[in-house]
Task: structure prediction
Amino acid sequence: MRLKLPLLAAIAFAGAAGLVQAQQVPSPASQSSTPAPETPEAEEAPPAPSAPAASQPAPTAAEKPVTSTTKPKAATVEKPAEPTRRTRSGAAIIQAIDKVTAETLRFEAPIGQPIRYKTLVFTVRACETSAPDEATPDSVAYMIIDSQPKSLTGRAPPPPKQVFRGWMFSSSPGLNPLQHPVYDAWLIACRASGPDSAKR
Result:
């Protein structure tokens, strides 16, 4: 009996040790419930590229900005028609009247050449006729009129005195008239420079 007790005690001790070891080894059921050990961060796979969100579709051809390098056609831009230029003449036809004697004279004054009528000296600087596309046909002349009495024998002529400077209009003589107590003058027309056609 003494031999059997130590043997039984050894068997019981060995059985107890086996039970402890069995409790330490996890069963398959317990392995599934325990979390898997974490892998180091260095071994983690890189994140996959994220796909574009479904709410932001790629821009269509109509929405894409136009970056065309072609220049716009010049024909699409309509330029306004250039007005026809006025005709410039070489001389002005002027009519003058002496209010005291009622004497009238129509004469031609070439551009830049002084023409005397009694005590008045006419110098025409420009004479133009209206262009065909203008509503009203007209002739305009820019002239300077000086009052200068004739010099007496043996005496120097008196200095001229300007009595008019500006544009005269053949269609509207009263628009910018000569204001003189004795004489009156107005523009009749413009024409090409020619021989003296003064008519008395």
About this structure: The chain has two helices and eight strands.
